[in-house]
What does this fold into?
Amino acid sequence: MSSSSAAPAAKPPMRDALVAAAFQLFLERGYEQTTVDDIVTLAGVGRRSFFRYFPSKEDVVFPDHERCLADMSTFLTESAEDDEPVRRVCDAARLVLRMYAENPAFSVQRYRLTKKVPGLRAYELSVVWRYERALAAYLRGRFAGRPDGTLRADVVAAAVVAAHNNALRSWLRSDGKGDAGVAVDHALGYVQAAFGRPAHPRAITPLPEAGPAASGGERAEHPDDVVVLVTRRDAPLWRVVQEFETTLGRA
It folds into this structure.
């Protein structure tokens, strides 16, 4: 053989070959009509090889979620004490988006398949629940000792997942066109605005005692007076933000 002959293409890893074979059959025959035996036959491997990588046929539809969940858990575990908690869980959710965006065609294909198969929708919900529990567990640790700390953690985790999934599904419905990151950032921005802390909070200076010099014309000459909002210590942050916006509106 001539040294200039092209080398044969490398075979894909067995795990990838099983996923490719499974989706080819799902599209040709339908999910319910495809068996594990069909998948391993097309992939050219044994049954034992399939179960070495995937506990069930459902798992082959979501091959990367275990890795992504592990990456998210590590990301949260490695958080620094001065990391703003809500921003941190929003960044953790972006790891899930990155997994989907790495292969838009496969992600759209899986989305369409999941919509058609009730069992896969139920499986997907269980996966989403595990992401939410991971976020909530981190937040519970960060909010420990605060009034309603556990409640706050669970509400924020649910809000992050809802915002992320809303943007992600919109992107999938568009066949993976456009920048999914922009949509997810926009959605998560709502969560950070409602529950988080600004990256560079502006200091609020108490106003001096009101007196003759602080009334009338002097106020008109200083339109940038500081507004001080008095609220209960245990008030939820979304309520504080709402009251602050209302106060500014009246001002």
